[in-house]
């Protein structure tokens, strides 16, 4: 296994295609993996919240990570979550199982490392036990909003960076000040901070973020990839403005909205979800269709957008 080699870019928070009976559509997983990579992404985050990971069995989590690794075939690094149990011993076992599949990093879910009322001392102690028991397996950190939203302090980011074990950190505070403090705390020690908030991607890149890891890449990865590369360019603010305007809509009734968006773009995909029974209204569909036309027009207007 190897650490991330690309310092800047997009890690989509992958969705999981499901059949009408709610089983995983494995051919759909393959097609999505290819599409993400062809869109120019830096890597893939499989088995995350967008993947409906808390509604998957352990066997499905393992099979999903394995499938994405196999399909990506070394074209980009794949990371996947690996701490779903409150027991450290169970976490260690599953981290090793995920690592054995060939992922570049096993992602530690911050909210699974301590109870909501536990302070940072407890969290750090639990993570230290996990580190000690998992050898040299490269790890990531993820401020997943479920089962509760635990943000990792800048002090803990500095500690995590200092261990030399953590490579990718998905930051979800939606606060530029907190994000900036964590980037500074990481101090270039090999821990890459990826912003999950597409509405502040441009500003975060200027602060030193390594890129984007969030749901918008399930809709229109190309403008995000372009912005991570050209955030100092003259057109960057215009691209960011369009991404910012679209963001509230794509979060509405997610992940059903993302599956609808992909289906409208030509994917053979249902809108079935294990975590949402939402139905998109005609109004919802019209707005999503309009966003797709805007993003496609952006690509047509500037042929170098995805370069």
Structure description:
With 307 residues, the protein is an alpha/beta fold. It has a domain at 9-219: TIM Barrel, CATH 3.20.20.70. The chain has eleven helices and eight strands. The radius of gyration is 18 Å and the shape is globular.
Global outline: globular
Give, in order, the helices and strands. Answer: EHEHEHEHEHEHEHEHHHH
Alpha-carbon distance between the termini?
A: 29 Å
**Over the alpha carbons, how many angstroms does the gyration radius reach?**
18 Å
What features would you highlight for this structure?
307 residues; alpha/beta; TIM Barrel; 8 strands; disordered N terminus
Summarize this entry quickly.
This protein has a domain at 9-219: TIM Barrel. The chain has 307 residues and is α/β, with parallel strands linked by helices.
Q: Which helices and strands, and how do they pair?
A:
Layout: E1 9-10, H1 26-38, E2 44-46, H2 58-72, E3 78-81, H3 88-99, E4 105-109, H4 120-133, E5 139-142, H5 154-163, E6 166-171, H6 176-186, E7 192-195, H7 201-207, E8 211-212, H8 221-229, H9 236-251, H10 256-264, H11 282-301
Parallel strand pairs: 1-8, 2-3, 3-4, 4-5, 5-6, 6-7, 7-8
């Amino acid at each position: 296994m190897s650490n991330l080699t690309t310092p800047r870019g997009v890690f989509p928070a992958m969705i999981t295609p499901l059949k009408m009976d709610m089983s995983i559509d494995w051919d759909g997983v393959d097609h999505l993996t290819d599409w993400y990579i062809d869109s120019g992404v830096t890597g893939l985050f499989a088995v995350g919240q967008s993947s409906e990971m808390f509604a998957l069995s352990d066997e499905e989590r393992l099979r999903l990570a394995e499938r994405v690794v196999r399909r990506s075939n070394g074209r980009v690094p794949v990371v996947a979550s690996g701490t779903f149990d409150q027991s450290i011993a169970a976490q260690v076992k599953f981290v090793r199982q995920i690592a054995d599949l060939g992922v570049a990093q096993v992602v530690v879910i911050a909210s699974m490392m301590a109870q909501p009322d536990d302070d940072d001392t407890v969290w750090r102690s639990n993570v230290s036990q996990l580190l000690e028991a998992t050898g040299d397996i490269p790890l990531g950190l993820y401020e997943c909003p479920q089962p509760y939203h635990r943000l990792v302090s800048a002090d803990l980011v500095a500690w995590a960076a200092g261990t030399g074990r953590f490579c990718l950190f998905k930051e979800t505070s939606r606060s530029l000040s907190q994000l900036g403090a964590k980037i500074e705390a990481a101090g270039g020690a090999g821990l890459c901070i990826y912003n999950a908030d597409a509405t502040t991607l441009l500003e975060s890149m200027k602060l030193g973020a390594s890129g984007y890891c969030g749901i918008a890449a399930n809709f229109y990865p190309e403008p995000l990839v372009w912005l991570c590369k050209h955030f100092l360019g003259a057109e960057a603010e215009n691209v960011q403005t369009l991404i910012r305007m679209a963001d509230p809509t794509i979060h509405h009734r997610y992940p059903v909205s993302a599956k609808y968006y992909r289906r409208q773009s030509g994917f053979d995909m249902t809108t079935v979800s294990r975590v949402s029974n939402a139905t998109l209204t005609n109004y919802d569909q019209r707005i999503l269709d309009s966003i797709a036309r805007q993003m496609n027009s952006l690509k047509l207007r500037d042929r170098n957008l995805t370069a």
